[in-house]
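quick one: iron/sulfur cluster bound model?
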Amino acid sequence: MFDLFASGLKLKSQKITSGQAIEVMPPPKKVHIPFSQHQGNPARPVVSIGDHVKAGTVIAEAEGFVSVPVHASISGTVTAVQRHPHPVLGHSLACTVEADESDEWKNPAQTHQSYENLPVPELLKKIKGAGVVGLGGGAFPTHVKLAPPDDIKIDTLLINGCECEPMLTADYRLMLEYPVGIVEGAKIFQKILGTPKLVFVLENNKTGAAHALEKEGAVVRIIRARYPAGHEKQLIKSVLRRTVPLEKLPWHAGCVVQNIATCHAAFQAIRFGKPLIERVITVSGEGVREPKNIMVRIGTPLEDIINFCGGYAAKPRKIIFGGPMMGIAQFAPDVPVIKCTTGIIVKLRERSEPETSCVRCARCVDVCPMKLMPCEMVKYVKHNEFNKADDLGTRACIECGCCAYVCPAKIPLVHYFKYGKTEIQRIRS
Ligand code: SF4
Ligand code: SF4
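yep, here:
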């Protein structure tokens, strides 16, 4: 087993859905599909109110290289193109489609048997055309990640199956239930990059998934379960002992990291011509009656998902899209699942103790996986001394939340660092 970084946190596992097979949620009556679901330029809308669309119809075209198209996820009629709650951006332009209940697909599944022989530009075109982005939460367009500059040599492709957030199990179930597509997708990425080494990385609490992948011919490395092992930079450090320089990409450390769900989505796109219109998420927490792993259409509203999972167990105190450590709290019942939504966590209890003064305990320093000094950084951010905060490396913060989790003074450190990073960026631009 590979030794992981000494910092980070050993969190209590709350993966209560790990034994729950993926259930396919029926298409909802209405979806709200944001045009902005990936990093880079938002897609450009190409539909109007009254248009009829099928599942898989392009509703927004990619705008430039760092962008992907967005597709309808159900068949029906476009009833609105307007600003709508967005799980990451607050609000953004979105397309509402009301279902006609035929669930008709634009291009019913096609099988491309000889996809292995397609030339690299054709593979990249298909991946982009299907709207594939990083499904681990980053949502970086996959075809861009697979096209490093000519002067950069990539020797290793790491496939990230760590899923280190404590309550999420969607990737784990995907590896157990769909190992063939994941391994084939990873091999397609390997061919595109021309990398000699392809390694799957899993935490030591996912032995079953490791065996499922190995049966399909995957080389698997096991690392210790320790949050945030699944963060790209930590993964590269743990497995390859390489450091990605500040403001640089894994390319600059000679590697590419892809999430396992992204491999599966790319395989679906190339083998079956299927665009990215659904994904697997975990719905968990004490606030939902039937925690599950579900395959859900992109654009499905939160309230439909909760109803599919038996409804709320009691009045929720907090609803998070993503994992409990890095996820984002939501306020609107019709906020939709988007491509980078990994899970929905419903909490009935929420710590709301007031922030007090730093007691200089240095716990935040001990746990920071980026070797930063959160207690010092926060002082400067609080006093709007952003240049000094920058000198201390605030931009390197990966917003993992470890420091805030252990802080006895209940200082919302990540909140300050998000703000500080935005201000530093503003000053530097
Ligand atoms: S400073 Fe940033 S990287 Fe370090 S523990 Fe806090 S959130 Fe994580
Ligand atoms: S953990 Fe909190 S109280 Fe302790 S040094 Fe860091 S900021 Fe201060």
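The two ends are 43 Å apart (CA to CA).
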